[in-house]
Amino acid sequence: MIYTNSQQALANKIDDKPQLSNWKDWKWQLKHHIRNLEQFEYLTGIRFSDEERAQLEATFAKFPLSITPYYLSLIDKKNYKNDPVFKQAFGAVEELTTLPSELADPLSEDKDSPVEGITHRYPDRVLFHVSNVCAMYCRHCTRKRKVGDIDFVPSKEQLRKGIDYIKQTPQVRDVLLSGGDPLMLPDEKLDWLLSEISQIPHVEIIRLGTRMPVVLPYRVTDKLVSILKKYQPLWINTHFNHPNEITASSREALAKLADGGFPLGNQSVLLADVNDCPRIMKSLLHKLVQNRVRPYYLYQCDLSEGLSHFRTPIGKGIEIMESLIGHTSGFARPTYVIDAPGGGGKIPVMPNYIISWSTNKVVLRNYEGVITTYQEPDSYELKNCDRNCSECTLELNIDGVDENEAIGIEKLLSDSCDTISLIPENNERLQRRDIND
Ligand SMILES: *Cc1c(COP(=O)(O)O)cnc(C)c1O
Ligand code: SF4
């Protein structure tokens, strides 16, 4: 079942001596990835007009094409124009449109990069870009300008810079390997990298973000699982966007990872004309949980160059969240986030559930529209926390618990700090005060 008739036909076209085993060999898949229009037309039988071809060639010159034979085999050739797999894999001329609000590096990952390969944005965790290549180049990729620009797998010396930064930065307890796709690294290098990171005493967990279960599920071999197993606790996040991507092969890959003992998560991107529909999204989420994958994030599409045709209004995401909260299992719904342009990090957004508030009651609404009240306790004693934890009646085991300063809004809420406001830089009113002082 894993090998379908259309996959067989494709394998025959790609390789003179196709063997059943080849199709499921991830290296064979990578070697035969589809990189240009001619190959695409030959293998799918889809034909474009001369005018379309010229525009598509220009698109691929700017953002390269790369599709695995496996992912190509999922395209519905008869109705390719509406096909979610086609839209994620194959370029559209709209990619050449750049809007004034779009940026090459919308999340300022470069500015928050202390050393090559590392983005250190949050206090206790880093993003480590360990490869610049992916099995497939998603057309909606945030790192579109980088991924595939020059196919590049960093050497051990280059990776060493990131490892050294983590070693020297004791607050980093969570290392997120990303890319490109970290599973593009050969097994030996991945083994080495994980072993280096896991030996750093302050690193508590490693996370791996990969789209392999979606675009090249055969990458999840028994050997890979046995390597990864050595580095528990290892969390794995994948990137399914549409229920059509859940196939017999991807289920098998997910089962191997779940059986390997890795907690699995999924990050989807909300994409116009791909999954911007509450029913499609719900169907995807249900399939994910059936395969032991916990939906983690639903991303609002970033302001990267060439993605305007994929972007939806934020209202679409809120509408989808409204259709999920209360309507389906709590663990089947992701957190909808906007990654703040300029590098502010992920900001969760939700429909509003609090309708009003008094000193002793909160008025809330539920998913059905029922309006209800929650009576606040009269007995709650206000605690003034001076962060003198050793004197506190709540028993925090101080040993091994890091002392950290409250930052941001948390700081405004804390009793132990006298900051009363956060003021934007160059606030004119306060500059006037300075002059008058
Ligand atoms: C998303 C992201 C992380 C991880 O964030 P979580 O909310 O913990 O999943 C870390 N660093 C950067 C730069 C990120 O973009
Ligand atoms: S797998 Fe991820 S990093 Fe690679 S092209 Fe797709 S979205 Fe971009």
Automatic annotation (TrEMBL):
The family assignment reads:
Belongs to the radical SAM superfamily. KamA family.
Which stretches make up the Radical SAM core domain? 120-332
Keyword Repressor part of the UniProt annotation: no
Q: What is this protein called?
A: L-lysine 2,3-aminomutase
N6-(pyridoxal phosphate)lysine: which positions carry it?
K346
**What Pfam families would the database entry show?**
LAM_C, Radical_SAM
EC number(s) from the headed UniProt entry: 5.4.3.2
Q: Which reaction does it catalyse?
A: L-lysine = (3S)-3,6-diaminohexanoate
Keywords assigned by UniProt, alphabetized: 4Fe-4S, Iron, Iron-sulfur, Isomerase, Metal-binding, Pyridoxal phosphate, S-adenosyl-L-methionine
User: What GO MF annotations does this protein's record show?
Assistant: 4 iron, 4 sulfur cluster binding; L-lysine 2,3-aminomutase activity; metal ion binding
InterPro entries registered for this protein in UniProt: Aldolase_TIM, LAM_C_dom, Lys_aminomutase/Glu_NH3_mut, Lysine_aminomutase, rSAM, rSAM_sf
Ligand binding ([4Fe-4S] cluster): C134, C138, C141
Cofactors: pyridoxal 5'-phosphate; [4Fe-4S] cluster
